[in-house]
Every structure is written in C-alpha cells, then in structure tokens.
C-alpha cells in the first residue's frame, strides 16, 4: 500500500500525504465528485481530474501486483523460477515489461491435434 502511494506520487507529482488521504476516502466509498467538492481540506485541494488519475493509477498498480503473483506462481510451478528472475519480476511496475519477462515461460495453448497425439491417436489419422 505504501509502495503504491510512493509510485503514484512519483508518477503524478503529487505529495504522498495527499495520495494517502485521497485513497482512504475512495476506500470508504466516497465518489470522486464528492471528494473534490466537499473534502478539499482532506485532499489538499485536488480537483476531479487529479483524483481520477490517482484512482486510475492505484487500480493499475493493484492489477499489476495481482498479475505478478500469478506469473510468479506459474513459473514456480514449472520449476523455472530463479532468484534473479523473481527479483526482475518483483521490481518492475510496467505491465508491458512484465509481460515481456513472462513471455518465454508462458504456457502454450494446446491444439486439438496435439491433444489427439498425446492420447495416441496419430497412427489412426495416418491410415
């Protein structure tokens, strides 16, 4: 959570305290227009666009975090996870870079023909 606040603060150039206060209001269920109109003292005078950007960035980082967990789990199940790879995945916060790292380890889709070959049906097809 604190890491997300730092990342959002760096990307939007808004003080971390304002980010933290805005996210806490959003988590309580307050809407963006309500926060920008009636909670200016809490957010430090952020407008609707800035609050929307904060919410968008937070959602993006949450999605990336979940994707990282999935990728780490998948690679670990294959037995191909090294400490260097784990570190690279954990340090990146760009979804494109994350997917590029994962690409060589991504499971391939099985076609119907591959499934049939695995079941031993290829000799029948060649008759």
What is the gist of this entry?
It is built from nine helices and no strands.
- Write the element-wise H/E pattern from the N-terminal end onward: HHHHHHHHH
Number of helices: 9
The biggest beta sheet is recorded as: none
Question: Which word captures the global form?
Answer: elongated
Mean pLDDT: 91
Q: How many structural domains in the coordinates?
A: 1
Q: Roughly what fraction of the amino acids lie in strands?
A: under 5%
Summarize the amount of helix as a percent range.
over 70%
What is the structural class? mainly alpha
Regarding quaternary structure, what we see is single chain
Number of strands: 0
Radius of gyration: 22 Å
Keywords: Ribonucleoprotein, Ribosomal protein
Domain Tex-like protein N-terminal: 5-76
InterPro entries: Ribos_protein_bS1-like, Tex-like_HTH_dom_sf, Tex-like_N
GO molecular function, one term: structural constituent of ribosome
Q: SSE layout and pairings?
A:
Blueprint: H1 2-12, H2 16-27, H3 32-38, H4 40-43, H5 48-78, H6 83-91, H7 95-102, H8 112-118, H9 122-126
GO molecular function: mRNA binding; structural constituent of ribosome
Domain Tex-like protein N-terminal: 5-76
Pfam families: Tex_N
Task: Give descriptors for this structure.
127 residues; mainly alpha; Arc Repressor Mutant, subunit A
């Amino acid at each position: 959570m604190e890491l997300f606040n730092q990342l959002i603060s760096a990307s939007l150039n808004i003080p971390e305290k304002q980010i933290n206060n805005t996210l806490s209001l959003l988590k309580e269920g307050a809407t963006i227009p309500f926060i920008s109109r009636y909670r200016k003292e809490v957010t430090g005078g952020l407008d609707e666009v800035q609050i929307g950007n904060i919410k968008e960035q937070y959602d993006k980082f949450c999605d990336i975090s979940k994707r990282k967990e999935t990728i780490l789990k998948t690679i670990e199940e294959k037995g191909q996870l090294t400490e260097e790879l784990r570190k690279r995945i954990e340090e990146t916060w760009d979804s494109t870079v994350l997917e590029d790292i994962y690409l060589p380890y991504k499971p391939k889709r099985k076609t119907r023909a591959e499934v049939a070959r695995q079941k031993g049906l290829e000799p029948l097809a060649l008759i």
